[in-house]
Amino acid sequence: MRTSVALLFGGRSGEHGISCVTAGGILAAIDRERFAVTAVGITREGRWVHVSDDPSDWTLVDGRAPEVVGEGPEVLLPAARHRPGERSMLRQITDGEITDLAEIDVVLPLLHGAYGEDGTIQGMLEMLDLPYVGSGVLASATCMDKAATKLSLRAAGLECAPGIVVHEDRWAAGADEVRDHLRRHHRLPWFIKPARAGSSLGVTRVEDPEELEHAMKTAFAEDPKVLIEEAVVGREVECGVLQGTDERGPRTTVPGEVLVGDDLDFYDYEAKYFGKGTVSIDVPAGLPDGVLEEVREVASRAFTVLGLEGLARVDVFVTEQGRVVVNEVNTMPGFTPYSMFPVLWEHMGLPYAELIADLIEQARSRRLGPR
């Protein structure tokens, strides 16, 4: 009997469209002889609907990302299961009538950003005893919040960029005080980042303190909590991590490097997904073997320290002195066939379809409840 998988995508965050594109990649590659797939989209307003599982419906068209709209039967969540191995039944409302949609073994949440990657959806699935791919509530919430992530990593002795956290209320009450503090204690340039947003949404590089006002406004549009960090001079390197098998430690990839052309200030949202500027990806990164191994060790330690499960992509900077500085940790990284995470694992001999299967089987074997 095929494993029944609910693909969950879209959502209420600014990364709705990228989540849909990720779903398209998964739908095109997943082994349908091994897995029975039910596609569930979440609209920007939070409505759950049964949507097409045709990957062609979830691709970029003329540079525009697809979107989950309110059409289609509304999906009803199941009651909590009470026996190990028992399947959960998704139901749907069609013309006012409630009917069975599909029995579900595991949920694959392809949600990026708030209301999906931040522990909220994970908490709901925990309450329903639904197995799911990826990290649990605390780990997801911690990694969604870049400031919380770095507190945990620094406590474990891992290096991160110096910076401060500023809430929108504090900025409104004393912007000049914040600006003066930055001038005294943090060298330019600064990176202004929403603390709880991904895909470089709302991120601005600031070369002049006079640019700070606009950069803060851009970041606050995504999140009232903002992280201001010193820029790290170094090469941007990314490492894929999968949960270990048979009680072994995390599995890591050879790191890859994002190379940004002179026409870009940094690897921003438009560069990542919509072809802006000159960007290339080298796998493996063009660094000495010893440095590549150090990056893998840092990525493995970060995965363990943060209590992650399933998968993660750990992004670091490697300085000229060979220091490895953690930039951020993504618990649901971009997952299209061309995204860094699957490309890294392809290089390690784990094809895209098998990577998907690996994650689903991990989730199925994980025990329900506290672990």
Give a brief description.
With 371 residues, the protein is α+β, with helices and mostly antiparallel strands. It contains 10 helices and 17 strands.
What's the structural blueprint in terms of helices and strands?
Layout: E1 3-10, H1 16-29, E2 35-42, E3 48-50, E4 74-76, E5 88-94, E6 97-104, E7 106-109, H2 120-127, H3 137-144, H4 146-155, E8 163-167, H5 168-185, E9 190-194, E10 204-206, H6 212-220, E11 225-230, E12 235-242, E13 251-252, E14 256-260, H7 269-273, E15 279-282, H8 289-305, E16 311-318, E17 324-330, H9 340-347, H10 352-365
Structure overview:
By secondary structure, the chain is α+β, with helices and mostly antiparallel strands. The chain is 30% helix and 25% strand. The chain is built from ten helices and 17 strands. The chain has helices at residues 16-29, 120-127, 137-144, 146-155, 168-185, 212-220, 269-273, 289-305, 340-347, 352-365, and strands spanning 3-10, 35-42, 48-50, 74-76, 88-94, 97-104, 106-109, 163-167, 190-194, 204-206, 225-230, 235-242, 251-252, 256-260, 279-282, 311-318, 324-330. Strands 12, 13, 14, 15, 16 and 17 form a six-stranded antiparallel sheet that branches. Strands 3-2-1-7 form a four-stranded mixed sheet. Strands 8-11-9-10 form a four-stranded antiparallel sheet. A hairpin with a 5-residue loop joins strand 2 (35-42) and strand 3. The radius of gyration is 21 Å and the shape is globular. It starts with a strand and ends in a 6-residue tail after the last helix.
